[in-house]
Design goal:
Structural class: mainly beta
Number of strands: 11
Low-confidence stretches: none
Helix content: under 10%
Shape: globular
Number of helices: 0
Largest sheet: 7 strands, mixed
Length: 127
Amino acid sequence: QVQLVESGGGLVPAGGSRGLSCAASRGTVSTRTMGWFRQAPGKEREFVGSISWQIGGKTRYADSVKGRFTISRDVANDTVYLRMSSLKPEDTAVYYCAAASAAYGGVVTTSLGYEYWGQGTQVTVSS
């Protein structure tokens, strides 16, 4: 069983930056592709970004966050990060960390490919 715990959410002014962390069970980040998703009120959960567990840690981002958000990982500490900059009010959402099925080697952009989810952390961007 993989456990994921997000932290770092809060209130941020538009144009500001925020970093989220996802602490995973031991061995998770080195063996599973990790992803970030978000869900705004009244909307479906959407893909934000993904980082492969393979050497090099290939990443992929949603078009809406490309160039503003960056995913990184600390394999030794089983932690994944989401650095968000140039935040916009439309980035307001609950942000979820997820661990993909062990069957995947590369990035995973669909929620169906993720087996474990964190509880989420709220990010609110004020205008």
